[in-house]
Prior knowledge:
19 helices, homodimer, alpha+beta, 8-stranded antiparallel β-sheet, 45% helix
Amino acid sequence: MTSSSAAHPGPAAAPGPEAPSPVVRATRNAAVASLLGLIVLGLAWELVLAPTGSGMLALKVLPLTLPLAGLLKHRMYTYRWVSLLVWLYFTEGVVRAVGDRGLSAVLAGVEIALCLVLFAACAAHVRWRLREARARGPALQPHKALAVVRPADTAQVAEVLRLCRRHGASIVPQGGNTGLVGGSTPDDSGTQVVLSLARMNRVRAIDPANLTMTVEAGCVLQAAQEAAQAQGLLLPLSLAAEGSCTVGGNLATNAGGTQVLRYGSARDLCLGLEVVTADGEVWDGLAGLRKDNTGYDLRHLFIGSEGTLGVITAATLKLQPQPAAITTAWAAVPDLDAAVALLQRAQARLGAGLTGFEVMNDASLALVRRHFPALPKPLPPSPWAVLLEQSDTEGESHARTLFEDLLGAALEDGVISDAAVAENLEQSRAMWHLRESIPLAQAEEGPNVKHDISVPVSRIPAFVAATDAALSAAYPGVCLIDFGHLGDGNLHYNVQAPAGADGAAFLREHEKAINRQVYDAVRAHGGSISAEHGIGLLKRDVLPDYKSPVALALMARIKQALDPQGLLNPGRVLR
Amino acid sequence: MTSSSAAHPGPAAAPGPEAPSPVVRATRNAAVASLLGLIVLGLAWELVLAPTGSGMLALKVLPLTLPLAGLLKHRMYTYRWVSLLVWLYFTEGVVRAVGDRGLSAVLAGVEIALCLVLFAACAAHVRWRLREARARGPALQPHKALAVVRPADTAQVAEVLRLCRRHGASIVPQGGNTGLVGGSTPDDSGTQVVLSLARMNRVRAIDPANLTMTVEAGCVLQAAQEAAQAQGLLLPLSLAAEGSCTVGGNLATNAGGTQVLRYGSARDLCLGLEVVTADGEVWDGLAGLRKDNTGYDLRHLFIGSEGTLGVITAATLKLQPQPAAITTAWAAVPDLDAAVALLQRAQARLGAGLTGFEVMNDASLALVRRHFPALPKPLPPSPWAVLLEQSDTEGESHARTLFEDLLGAALEDGVISDAAVAENLEQSRAMWHLRESIPLAQAEEGPNVKHDISVPVSRIPAFVAATDAALSAAYPGVCLIDFGHLGDGNLHYNVQAPAGADGAAFLREHEKAINRQVYDAVRAHGGSISAEHGIGLLKRDVLPDYKSPVALALMARIKQALDPQGLLNPGRVLR
């Protein structure tokens, strides 16, 4: 076994925050340009063109240099105070334009003009950003914390929770802040304490004979993966945000990813937790036991509760031996029924060796072809494509033989129309890169209505057929980007505005109705409106329409029992 | 793939209830004999030897025939009322012995003697049984129900719970009643309603493309396994009681078994539940979804709660494709360190193909050799033996080759001292039979102190070394029967009285102290005092000594929130 052949080829690195819209870019450019103009003007005026005598007055441009970095980095707060600061310079310009003569008055006029441009750019920028945030839903609205606390250990977390309890301050636990449903950001009241686990990032222990590792909540997932790999072991949780999300957040949200088919979600990898309760008490449940039937399973109650029942401070995770080889294959299928049939064959033939099974419709891959034309394509376009990943304990050639047998038989039986098995790690990576580029290509294409849904695997074809047809009828020309983890019955079922339409306007107008239509179809097919992203703030208000009222009532009772003051991440998951 | 090669070779059928002790057998025989004597005497006297004139008086023996079946079946209640009834016949005998003459007076003397024997036998029987029950702990003490209800569907279960709630009657849910900790039997107050799920035993659906099945709680595990197998699928939950335990009970207690290493405990196989709450409301959470992040995981809260939070009425379970072949191997190892080393090698080499890894010390196998000398032995005795099971998707010869490679290398490196790979299904079965005969051989040997404990796999050798040494020092000559699921860190660590000692007396005198010593060692090694059997009544009172008080307080709050009247299986798990 060589470490290079066992290296996991996917998923690609996390995509950054969504690319700024043209209006946002334009207003930033105008703001930066006018700010630079004011600085140059100030220096030139005082030192060269019409000096007032004291060169010291050139120092008045100093305050203008401070916001430069903030404007470039899209800091909302900077845009806001610049739009106030600018009125000082505007006033100076007006005073001089009225009092001075000649060149000085002309320069004052230029100053006034630049000030007005800067103000307008800042104001428009802020206004547009807020509007976009509202269009995206509550999760991404502006927020303001009372304080951000960064405890260094569990005792400090407990102390913070006791203090907050005494003062009735609510707490928003935060890991890598990569969640997509607004679970880890405070509201805009300025009364919530953000509890960042970022400093609690140690790997406390690795036990190779027990196949476990104990890590603190703030440990970045990739760092945990690398620590396991250094011992020849595999932490089989893998998702696009792994370079910045944290283990605590992964557990609080029960993260999924690309290997759930074989290894399960975050909850399935967790043997024990350390949790600080709403009372500020520490539950040390970090046992690395595979069997423990001594009472209620508190671990699974905290996992996936999105910080509303307690603060996870550390966890003991299951590890696996590193497979000897990981290989991928790409198959073209005529429809989703064939994809499900291929999945069944792959599960029977490869057993637990099958670690990934992703599907993509051609609309998804067409977006990738359009925006990233240079990416190598394993096969010509087909209605649907499947990416299979196999982890093998015997070696690369054994894995490839199994793949070739499986895909050869499927080709012969007409289940697939074409297939390619990766010849080497580079080809494997290229296949994964194609799959992982779909969300990036979507971002390039413009805003879209995103869904993270699951239905039983057997009902995926019927769900997609019915929902695609209904949406195409309701919104002619709409582009349906269907891709995801078929092995888990989990699709990222995204709806993009018709070609040529204004994406943002389409979202503003139709997002709610589209959500409703998709979620109703999910319910009709016995599915879930949040497969792996959670509820947070974003889906909280639609949850009661799609979840059993008995379950919601039980959840409310549990919340009341464990957090009677309602201080832990209030308003998330439950109203 | 042939169905015969894929048939799972183990575990053996469930052992029956513990065999009655010699005293119990002797008192029963005396009671039955004297009762029969009274009947024969009565008939002979009235009809032949010294008839009083009216043959009708022979009918007086009629009441004596009624208890015969109950005495033979060890019914405690029968023994109790017979010991009262007998005084009527005693009185008759005394009256006749005083008033009559000749043969009649002699027969009256015989009647008096038989009555006294019968009374003594019944009284001794009851007294001894109660004493044995007390020695075995609270779980097995006599119990008495207010009523046994046997609902046919979920709506009837809900109706029962609403009725009980209205009348403040507490409920003991019962499946196959095979639990070992007294979780499914009522107390002796006569106020508890036993809610038997036995009639709810349907397989509601099997979805091969989704790899799931939905079964009712009262479905016997083996029936569920067979229903899956009929579709070419595997329900990978396997334990000794599978012929009589039910799926609902398996989930309520989070049952383990022999394949946890690969497939997990009962909770890991469950995707969804249908539960009736304490209020008599039905939560339909039967979705067959592999990913669902819409709120708290109620499923895992009910699983393992032993009927104290709600009544499980149905479940959706994960299935697997049937493996193409299941093979077993037997290895001799010098010590437990070597067994752990072999486990690590097997996990790396076979990956998920390794579905079982059982260890047994030679004392366990010596008991089997003594009581079942005819069973074939794969290898000569060694300090420890390991049984490995492999499930292969490719076929028998592939599996055997993998085993031979693994064991050959281990032999070469001195990890094992000898090994045998089963050549066929019969040899596989024989290996499993040997392993499963240990509890039966123990029952033959006499009463023993049983433990079902887990520690991290890496700490098993240190735990066993320390605890074996401490117990041998405290109880010279004691016999330590150590065997179990090493892959899960789960041992059945049983303590048998020294050879020649009175087992029952040893238990009465030392059981509590031995429990304490073993559980203290478990705690010192970071383990659990109940790995797979649960808490029930039997371990409820020791639990607070070994479980985090924070966890116990959280459990109590949850119990209060979901069952505020305390009607669901009261006194189990929590006080």
